[in-house]
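Dear all,

This email documents one entry for the complex benchmark we are building for the journal club exercise. For each entry we list the sequence lines for every component of the assembly. Then comes the predicted three-dimensional structure of the complex as a token string, followed by one or two observations. Please use this as the template for your own entries, and keep the labels exactly as they appear.
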Amino acid sequence: MTKRALVTGATGQDGAYLCEFLLDKGYEVHGVKRRSSSFNTERVDHLYRDPHEADTRFFLHYGDLTDATNLIRLVQQVQPDEIYNLAAQSHVQVSFDTPEYTANADALGTLRLLEAIRILGLADTVRFYQASTSELYGKVQETPQRETTPFYPRSPYAAAKLYAYWITVNYREAYDLFAVNGILFNHESPIRGETFVTRKITRAVAAITLGLQSTLYLGNLDAKRDWGHAKDYVRGMWLMLQHHRPEDFVLATGECHSVRDLVELAFAAADRRLVWHGAGVDEVGRDADTGEVLVRIDPRYFRPTEVDLLLGDPSKARERLGWRAEIGFEDMVRDMVAHDRRVLSANGFHHND
Ligand code: NDP
Ligand code: GDR
């Protein structure tokens, strides 16, 4: 029997990798996309086939996590075996500007989807994955962070995701739903959104080295993250839903780097060596050979409350799921810079922060 998956957030970074992964496994995949005035399916266009063709296994449906009736109809129509809830307003800094919307989509959106499953009487048959996050640890209480580390959210995004985490646990306990939280540490790729710090840096390095941009403006260079590759992490999501019982898992590499390390590495991938001068908001990154200022600080990118350090302990996922991160940080950054150089050489550059 062909398995059927419903993926919210299918047009995002993880959604695109997950849909491809599930199609390769033989699934019929139903993605949810939002109505937009411009095309927003670029990341999954390569998966799409004309629905009139035989053997089509990838479908896109309009939907929104703020629209309960739409979600009920979609779950009813698709009758999925597995639901992956990846849709979210996923930008931490933006959540300080749009806290109510973020709570609506990320917290209540998760509840709406869980309720759709319950109302339709599918709690016995559906398996549900919730995209939880290392941002839950926020002001960290223990390092490295694992499944038992207490949460301390530091943004409207993290607070919304905290609700989503607990409502997922509650539906598992109250209704026996196979519902799990993947507590995923940062994961990136060449199709990462352009305003997250990794992709912002690799695009800027590409643009600077192609002569299309002069300076990269950043916020907190000292923040440290455990950065893995999205391709590895979507495999982990699937493994969680194949496990014999519903449990929450951390996915991480177990290694962390600062934003500063990332900038240096990205420039090195384009054969430019960076040296730092000054301190605080006056700190600059200069080209070691020419002295040209390539990186400056813009306090606009400082967050009202910051998460200083995230480092995950993926032992449980390794032991119980056989999962590990295979793509290393340096290879990933080099690949992202190379990708952005190819894209910008072909299409040019528009500024985006
Ligand atoms: P992206 O921002 O790339 O993708 C988010 C997706 O959600 C997009 O498809 C977006 O649509 C969609 N979306 C946003 N709001 C709504 C809404 N109201 N209704 C329906 N769809 C909506 O995120 P990622 O792929 O990086 O992350 C996937 C999930 O995992 C998110 O929930 C994120 O919070 C979480 N997460 C991500 C981590 C990471 O490091 N990447 C780590 C831990 C958790 P559109 O394309 O139209 O904008
Ligand atoms: P994060 O990712 O907040 O960890 O959330 P992001 O890449 O936005 O920030 C990482 C760190 O870099 C610092 N930083 C900057 N960040 C951005 N975006 N732009 C800058 O100019 C900049 N300068 C420094 C930030 O302050 C921060 O400390 C991501 C998202 O994918 C979430 O959805 C997910 O839940 C978590 O990862 C795990």
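Observations: The chain has two domains: 4-184, 197-224+257-309+329-347. The chain is about 40% helix and 15% strand.
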